[in-house]
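Q: Can I see a sequence and its folded structure?
A: Here is a first one.
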Amino acid sequence: MNQIVLTGMVLSTAPVGEYDRRVVILTKEQGKISAFAKGARRPNSPLVGAVNPFAFGEFTMYEGRTSYTIQSASISNYFAELRSDVIGAYYGFYFLEFASYYTKEYNDEREMLKLLYQTMRALINPHIPNLLIRYIFELKALCINGQAPQVFQCVVCGDSERPAVFSAAKGGLVCSECGSDVIDGIILDNSTLYSMQYIESSKIEKLYTFTVTPQVMEKLGEVMKRLREIYVDRKFKSLEILETLL
């Protein structure tokens, strides 16, 4: 078996047998992988804290023919602050579940991993509303997955001057000349449109550097709800629990 070192974040963990765990990790080098952490449920195991959701660091593993086995881990951030913030933790679980839905093994998932890490950092920052973090994360994740809506010009003719509405079904802005058949149009104020443009065009490290008014937050929520209905064919358990808590 080959020994390898992978950098990543634990997405989920589940008990296996009496003392082991099966861990899903989003890694920089191999995309989303499953690995076994033998003995990780024993109280004195060095892997006890390393294989919990949110843990980010380097994982030394043996790569077998059909699975990985974690030998040791060097965790650089546990995001322990989320343990004392129930709402923040469930937002975090939702982001992990969302990322797990979108990512694959042996795929280049570096951008999604970077987004996850920066999103968790934002979650433990008290100055950024959790709801805004959610909408930023969702829209940027769609962008990473190649599903970014067009928010800079009309998706039909390319015009960027005429008044336009946002149509999730059409894939973005539709100008007044091309919108006769649009049935789901949302009128976006300049602040909401600028926020979406910023999210789509900014580097991930710069995403969580702004706040918005309640009116813009409401409009972003309306847009993201439409986009999720079209692009996300999954109900997330963590989101259902979160919505009962809010």
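Q: Show me another, different protein.
A: A second, unrelated one:
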Amino acid sequence: MSTPRDHNGSDDDDAGRGWQEPAHLGGDEPTRDEPAQDGPARDEPNLADRRKQPRDSDPSVDPATWRPAGWDLPPAEPQRPAREPSGVEPAGIDPNWAPPQQDQVQQAPPQEAPVRRGLFGGRRQRDPEMERAFTYEGDVVGAQGWALQRGWTISDGTAPEDAALQQLITSAPVRLTKDHRPGSVLRGRAGTLELVAFDAVYTSGRHVVPEYAITAAPLLGAPPALRLSPARLWKHGVGGLVQIPSDDADFDRRWTLLAAEDGPQVRRLVGDAEVRRLLLGTDDGDEFWTAGGFLAAVRPDGHRPQLIEHHSRLLTALVAALAAGF
């Protein structure tokens, strides 16, 4: 194989005599000052110089002192205070500003809580009467002081005569558990009745919590199993009981009498005019039932003097109506 550099005396010897190696393959590429051999001068820069200096470099920048942007950052100091130029206040702060006085602050109007939407629509609004009825208003000290002034006796629920009260807690129309027990037991006479008033309490940590107030009056004979409750309250454990209607439509809309069997004694209970008058004048917050030889009343609260007197009036009328048949 022959190249143009091989001088073998052929006819194209003169043509090969002017050949040279391409500039990009050797080190004898043309420079800016001297033109390439046997060729015209070119204006493009020397390739060797272009390898030594980046194409995008700025000729005015000194490579020895040049640093990338963000190279010379201050040291990391988490609590470094913000630097403000001397004599310049922070932006957006008036040097004459002072906090407003308390009487100058306008209170924003209270906003109603948003109505939560559920799977079946909006949540039912709370009934103010129900909120008041289930708000604790008990006063153990006041109730005990009221009882002492009237000659009643006081027990903590552990006396031997208090054991019979556990049956009232077990049979109550409200949801009481096995952890509930009698507490702050008061016994005494109110009018014509011998009453026992106590709280259904449970222990939470180091505290005894009164949850329901129960007042009971003993009955003569064998009282029928019955339950007299406000019609608006949900009822449970009523299996085997039948509803006893009265001849008063207004009374039946607000109160429901359930008994094990229909009879003249329970009919007299809902037919008594004084019983209907007293019950229709209440807030429908009490429930009544018979158990263990007692007729009892219960309310979700702790006992206080006003509640004991309230239960005394109602139980006096109910016991009189039931005793009329004996």
